[in-house]
Amino acid sequence: MRRFDDIHQNGSKRFMRAVIAILATLVAFAVPPTVEAHGRKEVPSDPVLLEQYQAGLGAFYSSDYEAALKTLRPLAERETESSAAQLFLGFIYETGLGRAKDPVAAAEWYRRAADQDHTLAQIRLAFIYRRGEGAAQDNVQAYLWATLAARREGHVQGAAEVLREALAKEMTPARIAEARRLAEAWTETHSAAE
Fold this sequence. Notes:
The protein is mainly alpha-helical and 194 residues long.
């Protein structure tokens, strides 16, 4: 009986890893970054900057990723940052579109967009922390960002909830409580800033 339990438990872990890998792929590729961003500073409101942003999107969708990087980077780095531009940069670096993959740069750009409450960036960052690619593997941080991404209804919510459930199975109650406290603190801080 013990052998069956071991096989069943290990099989369940493999199954959950496979489900999470599939969800990560879907969120990364099947739901590419779109103009329908979910952040407060999604796209520039200034008409000139908006035109620059649209030119960057055009380059991205035309598979001219170097031009997209060149056009979107200045927008992403501005004082009044565009979380959508940051998301696109993270996506380009994470997937290696038109260049070598750079998971560290991807994590940095996703973090900047996630800090502006961009839902897609939050779920991408959660998967980065889950896998430990581009940032140290950290289930508390993964749970934190998945919790923040799960707050809004939409296509990301389901993936965030499944990821949180999988993470919870690997975490102690104290680590889950820590992640929840961090999510509450983040929400309070960012709600006060609005």
